[in-house]
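Just scan this pair:

***
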Amino acid sequence: MDVDTLRYLQDDGTPLGELPFPPEKLLSGYRALRRARHFDERALVLQRQGKLGVYPPFRGQEAAQVGVALALEKTDWLVPSYRETAAALTHGLPIATTILYWRADPSGWRFPEGVRILPFYIPIATQIPQAVGVAQAGKYHGENWVVAAFIGDGGTSEGDFHEGLNFASVFGAPVVFVVQNNGWAISVPTEKQMKVRRVASRAQGYGIPGVVVDGNDLVAVWKAAQEAVERARSGGGPTLLEALTYRIAPHTSSDDPGRYRTEEQTEVWKRKDPVMRMRRCLEYLGVWDEQRESALVEELETELLAALEEADRSPEPAPWSIVEEVFAEMNPDQRAAWEYLQGGMR
């Protein structure tokens, strides 16, 4: 079963019809989109300078993340995989904390109080059952929060993904499952991962809505996510939202994508760039120009430099902190390692 793809913008940014949001809202959305792009560009530079660890860039996938985050309330929860830095920044994670996280500094693991984001999940798909647990916990305690859980197309081949969807559908958990279908599970193309053409078609097997959006169209992602969030909050249960996008950048800063794909493949998607597409939409509407763009970039660079200075002022982490905050209470092996490190390195 194929699912129609929702889109509001042509590849060149021209609206296909009436847009669901007023210009002032679209402007705020573009700022979040451009802010994410700016961070990603600078993060790769910092990584090459030895100021970040291995970093998973998200260039080309900004709209698929930012659009969902914009649809959430601050009281809602965001459960990311390792590539959802754009979503996390949009949902309130400070830039300085984000920098420290990708430095593997324990200070970056401690998200500020009130920022409802679980840590970036590195193991594939393990976040999905846990996201459902967060949603069910809120439901059990009478909270009205919704959980947005992200995963890549490759992750949908994992058992945790299907277990999480089944549990959520049976119990009506208020979750929006966001699949960023970027065409690649590291080096394995989507068509070699699954027989179905669209991940969203699998929603039928769980009795939940499956929605496909143009993941490079911020307006479409935002609108689809908004409807899914409203449905979950009103008791309508989960939605499987598939955003069709493309990973322009390498899998991580240690990857060489030239080993498994051609530059011609990437060039096709560069012409659908979500940031430029949204900018051209605003220009078409007459609410954006080069002067405003330059001012925004200057503002974003000032913000990032201030955050970088803040991160650089963070004290050097103690060696024993590596075994802290893993469990609520240390197990015997952790305790022994912690005491050994403290005794030998003070």
User: Anything to note?
Assistant: The beta strands are 5-6, 77-79, 147-152, 175-181, 184-185, 188-189, 210-214, 239-244. Residues 23-315 form a domain with the Rossmann fold fold (CATH 3.40.50.970). The mean pLDDT is 95.
